[in-house]
Design goal:
single chain; alpha+beta; 60s Ribosomal Protein L30, Chain: A; 2 domains; four-stranded mixed sheet
């Protein structure tokens, strides 16, 4: 055996040597490698062996595993036919597994387009729900409605914001005029202080003028007490 392989130990022959007048001669051995791995050697003799005799016997030893030659000796030193060998030292290796197909990951779904909610162009605060009687201080309900408006505007700078205050016909004309102005100014101040932006704020009080319903009924007077906000 070549000096390239260090035999740790020879074991008994794996199979009985075969010899007949027509069949090949061969001997099979288990050999040890310096790294502790298992290897085998097949010696093929005689004049009637086919070129694949040693490889055929090696395939029987390896069974379903693959013959992996470590050293082989050809007759008369012929290296032109790698399967025509007389001494074959080999290991049995597990055949390489076919590469698993690479499954392309699905493309990530596009992020949903967030369409900003446009702020309303006009809202009305009725006085009964949003102001105390004869007062200009905003109630919590009024502040909540104005907060929704500021959030919906989302930083938009409007060309103009017009805020008009109105009352019913109860009370004097001068008193109603003053009250309507104070309520309109209270709404404008809250919107400015909370970030609603415009090139200009137009703030007016119109007292009991421009009613939207009859002042002869409770329901009508309630509709006339209001603050209108228009965004442009």
């Amino acid at each position: 055996m070549s000096a390239k392989i260090l035999l740790v130990a020879f074991a008994t022959a794996l199979l009985a040597a075969c010899s007949t007048a027509q069949a090949p001669h061969w001997n099979a051995y288990r050999v040890g490698m310096p790294n502790g791995q298992q290897a085998f050697r097949v010696d093929c003799h005689g004049l009637f062996e086919g070129q694949n005799a040693c490889f055929s016997q090696a395939s029987e030893i390896c069974g379903k595993k693959q013959v992996q030659p470590i050293e082989q000796v050809s007759p008369l030193g012929d290296d032109q036919n790698p399967r025509d060998v007389r001494v074959l030292t080999f290991q049995c290796a597990t055949p390489p597994q076919p590469a698993q197909p690479v499954v392309a990951k699905p493309a990530p779904a596009p992020a949903p387009v967030v369409v900003p909610v446009a702020p309303p162009k006009r809202i009305t605060l009725d006085s009964d729900a949003n102001f105390d009687t004869d007062k200009s201080t905003l109630k919590p309900d009024a502040r909540e409605k104005l907060d929704v408006l500021v959030e919906a505007a989302n930083g938009t700078v409007f060309r103009a914001i017009t805020i008009n205050g109105y009352t019913d016909s109860t009370g004097s004309v001068d008193h109603n005029q003053d009250l309507s102005e104070r309520r309109a100014q209270a709404v404008a101040k809250y919107l400015r202080d909370h970030g609603l932006k415009a090139e200009k704020f137009n703030v007016h009080g119109y007292g009991e003028s421009s009613p939207v319903a009859s002042n002869a009924t409770i329901e009508g007077r309630a509709k006339n007490r209001r603050v209108d906000i228009t965004l442009e």
